[in-house]
Amino acid sequence: MTGQPDAELDLRGVICPYNFVKTKLKLEAMEQGQILSVLLDDGDPIGNVPRSVSNEGHTILSQDLVEGSYRVLIRRREDE
What we know:
Elements: E1 7-10, H1 18-29, E2 35-40, H2 44-55, E3 59-66, E4 69-75
Parallel strand pairs: 1-2
Antiparallel strand pairs: 2-4, 3-4
Helix pairs in contact: 1-2
């Protein structure tokens, strides 16, 4: 359905708010509509990062538990 992500970030072991900042900067460097795959730890990262990028206008396509970490697929927003 979503196809292959256009970019990936492995943010396991990165604490808040740095994981959100790194995700935001990566999304800003991507083209509109592209998909970013982000690996996050359980706890605050998986709770905060998806909510924060949604607040920025991006779309969370999926959140899946993969080998003890979460893989979040984010579609970059369309700028107006």
